[in-house]
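User: I'll paste a sequence; please echo it back and then give the predicted structure.

Assistant: Echoing your sequence first, then the prediction.
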Amino acid sequence: MAQQTPVPGAQSAPPPGSDNASPRAGDRIIRIGGILAAVGAVAALIGLLPLLVPAVPSQPAIWFVAIGGVGVGVALSLYGMVRAARARSRALRPD
C-alpha cells in the first residue's frame, strides 16, 4: 500500500475519541441545550399525566419547567450551532 504524502498547510484532525481532541466551538452549548430540551420534554409528559390518570394532581410548576426547559434548550442548541458554524467558516477563511 502506498504511503500518502501530507499536503502542505493541511491540518490533520485527531481521531474521534482520542484524549487530545479539543471540543469545537459550540459543542458544549449544543449538548447543554439538548439536555435542557430533554428535561423539558420529560416534564411535559409528566404534566400530561393528570389528563390520563385523574387521581394525579396537576402541578403548575411542571408546566413552567416544561415550557422553559424546551424553549431555553432549543434556543441554546441553535446558538451553539450558529457559533460552531461561524467558527468553522472563520477557520476555513483564508487570511
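The longest helix spans residues 60-92. The chain has two helices and no strands.
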